[in-house]
Specification:
Helix content is 39%, strand content 15%. By secondary structure, the protein is of the alpha+beta class. It folds into two domains: 42 residues; 52 residues, no CATH class. The model has no long low-confidence stretch (mean pLDDT 76).
Length: 127
Amino acid sequence: MKKIDFKAAAAQAQARKKKDKSGEGKKEVIERPKRFESSPVYYKGEQVAVLNGTVAEYKVDIWSGAHPAWQGKKGKVLLDNSALTKFQEKFGMAADVYGEQGMEQVKANEELKKKQEEMAAQGLKVY
């Protein structure tokens, strides 16, 4: 059986009480981070949102409005490859003969390809 020195334990308890009363054992006050109201969120140089946080402005590589997973799309972003679009890509220069139906999708595909090339040049993932 272990022997307990009650006199030493009582002396330690009194020393702790004196320390607590004198304020030596009190914890330091933790300084909170600065809070910014209405911090802008930038995606590809454009402001896409405003939020409260600890940073004056946020620059993000991915944003819910641009990511296919949050848009309800599955897999990779694919260009529209309908038969009409393929035809207009080949013979778009003859739109006066065949009509301009589908040309807006061809232009949208070209813009999307340019954006993907810019992202790849910046070292970002291309979806």
